[in-house]
Amino acid sequence: MVLPGDRLEPLQGWGMAVSSAGYVYRPSTLDQIRAVLELAGAEGVPVVLRGSGCSYGDAALAPEAVVLDLSRMTRVLSWDPEAGIIEVEPGVTIAGLWRYALGDGWWPAVVTGTMEPALGGCLAMNVHGKNCWQRGTIGDHCLELDLLRADGTLETLSREHEPELFHAVIGSFGQLGVVTRARLRLKRVHSGLVEVRALAARDLGSMLEIVDREKDDWEYVVGWIDAFARGRRLGRGLIHLARHLEPGEDQTPAQSLRVEHQDLPSTIAGVVPRELVWRGLRPLTNRPGMRLVNLAKYLLGSTLGHETTYRQSLAEFSFLLDYVPGWKRIYLPGGLIQHQSFVPVASAERVLAAQLELCRRAGMPSFLAVLKRHRPDPFLMTHAVDGFSLALDFPVTAPSRDRLWDLVRQMAELVVEAGGRFYPAKDVAVPGELYRASFADGQPAHLARLKDRLDPEHRLTSALASRLLG
Ligand SMILES: Cc1cc2nc3c(=O)[nH]c(=O)nc-3n(C[C@H](O)[C@H](O)[C@H](O)COP(=O)(O)OP(=O)(O)OC[C@H]3O[C@@H](n4cnc5c(N)ncnc54)[C@H](O)[C@@H]3O)c2cc1C
Prior knowledge:
The protein is globular, with a radius of gyration of 22 Å. The chain is of the alpha+beta class. 31% of the residues lie in helices and 24% in strands. The model has no long low-confidence stretch (mean pLDDT 96). Helix 12 packs antiparallel against helix 13. It contains 16 helices and 21 strands. It has an eight-stranded antiparallel beta sheet with strand order 17-12-14-13-19-20-18-21. The site of flavin-adenine dinucleotide has 33 residues, from strand 3, helix 3 and strand 10.
């Protein structure tokens, strides 16, 4: 048997900075997935799993592999509107989830900054949201999942049945098997609105102090940092806190819980079609332009916006990045990478300040910097610590590529020294030895042992797994 050439498609990481071509299959049933795994086995070709392809880097890529794209598996298998428990196929997206359940008064307990990721991909990376301190990761809300091994064996995993494997599969970036079904518990909401409070922080110390102080009182806490600021203004930025409304606070909950009420407006400021906004931003996508954008955002937020309170729809607050469709195209032709490191509380100010300084000295300040507060979770390959994460976006250009990868290595060394972690969903440049060194208790070796047991021929692969696990 020969893999048909017409199946060979070019694919990219979401950030468009890395790519590979693969034999793409888009099954819609379990039997079809089994058939693809069998075909790949017979041909001796590795398989890479893919959800919506929203990982910034090389997580869902592998050169000349069979690509098992699960985005057509979008069925909701069962829904209990009393208990808020939903059972879905792996291609159901975050958007699919909230659109299905909101009318009954439920919202996903954890959502990402875009609503496009699929649940199989979200579980494989164990994603977090702006409420990670309060609610943990998506794995904390998964009750049960089906795992299809590379040899076609299907098993159901949960905290009660095979808990070790359950906690290893979630967060193991698709290396132990295909998640073909998941049962999740959603969160009860009494309104489709949240109350948002905006604050400004004059430097990194006060940014960390405010986020830490507010984290127990608000469901969502997120900081934005002006990565161009320096000296005593280093780390200055804006903080957004948000909470769900209690019963009775929203006079028209039946209306705000309707999907149509949540949909993002088709224009910005009532005039500019959202689809066109990225073109307007493009001329500013360079260092002076982004310095200006960051400065303007900080000045507005720290004057007019400071200490304001307002209401927003859940979708508007949660998926700010979806507001500008196709915004990543401002980074063409080279694309962008993101580096998100997780640092324990005690060393956060020192390490994050040093990272921002490293970027500045390298002449590569991050165009977009986002801070979150995290708590540890019980999953084997967890990226979370009791501390802060800082996600930094960088444009990639041919002349700067090597220097950028070197900058990420330098930032990663600081994180490892401080006992921090990295997030594979956002990564493409952390060297494998630093990733492995970030685990003090031999978790990568444990994952390797499980892989030898579940996938002895190492049929499941990815460029990310080869880079990080060696
Ligand atoms: C604009 C933007 C904002 C984001 N914001 C956040 C955020 O706030 N928080 C956060 O945590 N992440 C965030 N992310 C990252 C994103 O949520 C993760 O990368 C997520 O894994 C993407 O899901 P996906 O379906 O696109 O998976 P893919 O990117 O396609 O795949 C991710 C991994 O999952 C594996 N995989 C896919 N499907 C399966 C399956 N069925 N079974 C087993 N393994 C599988 C793949 O092999 C790969 O290793 C953001 C990404 C973008 C682009």
